[in-house]
């Protein structure tokens, strides 16, 4: 009989039929594996407990048509976090999502923050249209949301969980109309309105109503959309109407391009805008043609009076060697107000934070003393700024 | 509307229209030769603007050096895109190449976002382009004279290359039958690379003119000019270079004059362009001049 080495090997490997296959050292390996798993779980649990944070989310336009606002707000929030890194004895965890200046992305971003990141409060968004897209989701989930700069009336209307640290467009439109009528002595106004943005349409309407109520006349009303680059047709209409002031309540890109083209076409009429104009792109892109453009706004370092403001401005100067603008300041304010509410509520529960937010009174924020009033809107002063010598200068304050 | 206002609008329309035309001729040439609608054309335009922008910013080169450098770098980018994205799908059904083009478009936009940031940057307008000329009641920038000139010159250059050079003859032959041309011993890949280089260079030229006219650049700036150029090309007859130039001119004029005559519809300006596209595709899909294979 020949020795079948192969078969022998097979038998050794497989074991005789019926015999359970045993390997040397298997029981010991089991014990080590089990201990490893238990240790890992213990470490993980310890890490989780030790790193428990109060998670705050923000949905901001970091790219797209209004990227300047989101990026500036994030800078403001970062400095605010340096100033107040903890609440209720725990560190604040910050989660940022990019809305790409788009309504649909805004809604998705809020869903993601609430469901995946499980945040206790949300900061955002910067523009009214996007905030109105994200708000219903937070409202339904009962997570409080604080917008830094969404000014359209409809953003907080009928909602309990949505707040803002800025003034509202009915106030802004009124302030702009008064400035145009009393200070600029304008009696004939022409408008150019970005039809695609809720903010622009709303603000234009309030300006029109107030301006005509004061006794002025709207001599031309022209439209554009946010991505428009060419305004020659609209400017011909405006030039023909011979206005004393042009009201352009749009975002910084359209205002910059429009004003440049206006000056190129020989239209020398003063241009008045809204808070959306205060981004450095207005001056970078507008160049010397935007000298003299005035706008109603939220903030100017010269008008800053609170202790928080002075601290914020000095830190900003140290880090960026420049003056903070409205979006830096209001981003920070949204953070401070939210944190203050969490501290007063002594809880991270949505309903409690909401109640505390609604009771915010005379909070000394970076952009001034603010109280949360009716509908979750902030009652606070407004500033009038203008572009002079390539910088934003402060002209006046309008108190509520 | 008075006559001088009409004249002013006419000048605005010609300026905008020749800009669309300049961008459209690159678009349509690539289609005419390769039967590929290069959806990434607008984004190549955007990259051209950024190349020129950084050439001015980083190296402080005068505009008449940095603009040609920008155009040259964009031509190289076009070759890279052809080799990297379109060559592998040359033998695949046309839909694959189309989808690849869309992919390249997204890729360039997001690459731009990552490299250059989402915030718009101001494009420097050299004084020679920015001088305001007055003629009675009418005012326009010298740019409004430059753009039609450059567009016309580019059109002549392109026609010369396609109809009067050996490479051009190869291009025209490829548009008829690529396989046979390959059998004739012509290096088809080299010719298509040259086609893309030329198309991308024209895109860059159009882009720089666009950035001079609307001095703000951002990674998504190429989408609208790309779409409008597509409409212009289809309007004139896709594949037909002369048609694209004319289509662009027509589109620009219609856009400006329509808004001038009906100011309340200014918000729908872009909608008109796409209504024209739908109309042309429904009633005369071969375009005004007619779809024409080069030769």
How would you summarize what this structure contains?
Chain A has 400 residues and is an alpha/beta fold. Chain A has two domains: 54-167 and 302-380, Rossmann fold; 170-297, 3-Layer(aba) Sandwich (Rossmann fold). Chain A contains 13 helices and 16 strands.
Task: Describe the 3D structure.
The complex is a heterodimer of chains A (400) and B (295). With 400 residues, chain A is of the alpha/beta class. Chain A folds into 2 domains: 54-167 and 302-380, Response regulator (Rossmann fold, 3-Layer(aba) Sandwich), CATH 3.40.50.2300; 170-297, Rossmann fold (3-Layer(aba) Sandwich), CATH 3.40.50. Helices cover 46% and strands 20% of the residues of chain A. Chain A has 13 helices and 16 strands. Chain A has a 7-stranded mixed β-sheet with strand order 8-7-9-10-11-15-16, with helices on both faces. A 6-stranded mixed β-sheet of chain A has the order 2-3-1-4-5-6, with helices on both faces. Chain A has a 3-stranded antiparallel β-sheet with strand order 12-13-14. Chain A starts with a helix and ends with a strand. The termini of chain B are far apart. By secondary structure, chain B is mostly helical. The model of chain B has no long low-confidence stretch (mean pLDDT 91). Chain B has 12 helices and 4 strands; from the N terminus they run ααααβαββααααβααα. A two-stranded antiparallel ribbon of chain B has the order 1-4. In chain B, strands 2-3 form a two-stranded antiparallel sheet. Chain B has one domain (3-283): ABC transporter involved in vitamin B12 uptake, BtuC, CATH 1.10.3470. The interface between A and B is medium-sized, with 34 and 34 residues.
